[in-house]
Amino acid sequence: MKHIYLDHNATSPSSDEHLSSLFLKLKDSIGNPSSPHSKGRNASVCLTEARKAIANSLSVDVGEIIFLSGATEANNIATIGVLNYTKTPMHSQHVITSSIEHPAIKEPILFLKNSQNLQVTELNVSFDGFIQIEDIIKNIKPETTLLTIMAANNEIGTIQPVKFIGDYLHYMRWGIVTSQTDKETFDLLTTNYLNSEITKEHLQKIHFHVDAVQAYGKIELENWFSFGHDSVSISGHKVGSLQGIGALFLRRGRKYLPLILGGAQEKNRRAGTENLPGIISFGLIAKDLYSEHWRNEKSYITNLRDTLLTELSKLPNIELNTPINNILPNTVNFSVQGKKLKGEDLLVELDLQGICASSGSACSSGANLPSKVILALGKETSQAKNTIRLSLAYSNTKEEIEKTLSIIKNYLSN
Ligand code: PLP
Q1: pTM recorded for the entire structure
Q2: Ligand 1, pocket-test mutation among 67, 99, 102, 282, most atoms within 8 A of CB
Q3: Which of 288, 323, 349 marks a domain boundary?
Q4: Looking at residue 65, what is its pLDDT?
Q5: Which stretches of the chain drop beneath a pLDDT of 70?
Q6: What's the rounded Cα separation, in Å, for the pair 44 and 62?
């Protein structure tokens, strides 16, 4: 049976074409990049090439890219590593985050809260899954040292205003703004919401981290990246590279206490021999992002997503959890609602028919727990327990979407 893969937010499998180019590169380059001989030098050249490709894809400097085992590690660094770097005791530091962050952000913050009394403000989101800018500004305190907000949600696909928040912080820290309209909006927000005790020095001290795993390579950089971001985490396997590779963009001048100690790799910021296959793979993918071809692919995927959204919204017993606007081009999340209907059963039915989908976050699927993201929208537990996420890529076809819709319709009518 030919499989239909609709779980690209969990892992977007590498194409055959990518694997072939990767194999060719790896054949020549597997030495240790730290070794002085020719194989080591080859490996080091590949490492540099990949770093350049990732830096270019984000329009940042090569020295600002740190290779890691994935975005989970990047998010641990951006929380535990960043907060431990400041000499202030943990209980005197304050973090602002949101209720819909990925566990790779939530768990390290919870760990520091429980073990060292870190002060945490977890902001609620609107009923349709968006973080409110005013809420962030209102909650900034003199003790705030970290603000961490995701660029796009992995379960429901909502794109968060991290670009705007970054631009606001950049203006407030350094007085730099791109337009008069922005200046007026930012000034109004400050007058209405920013605690008058907060100075520009306080704002310069706050580290603004963005978990951009689901936005990177899916939406235009200019719609989510800002000079106000101090760090950004990205992950290779969400955009078609091998698994087990991720990167942290860390703005020049920002520091953290490394979590893994040993050799001097990654300029003493992450010890351990580099995952060269993963890094080369990630670099090859990054080279093709944000090109004209990439733009065409995005509009193709957006059309498939819109077909899904339109058709699903017509069905009885389906509640869409993905709103209509400001969403990723590839993500659709819905719940099945009805006495005999279960998200779990529909997932099994889809699986039996060769369709790979998920109930939401890969980390919580398998254990029929309600989705914390759907609960955070204020939805009932029954809706949060019966979710299905379909996440698409360019490899999907119109026929695959039609087949998926027809299986869902059949399930609902039986
Ligand atoms: N952050 C978000 C928003 C994610 O969706 C994921 C993976 O699902 C991660 C972080 C963790 O990424 P990785 O699998 O590279 O550790």
Answers
A1: 0.97
A2: 102
A3: 288
A4: 98
A5: 361-367
A6: 14
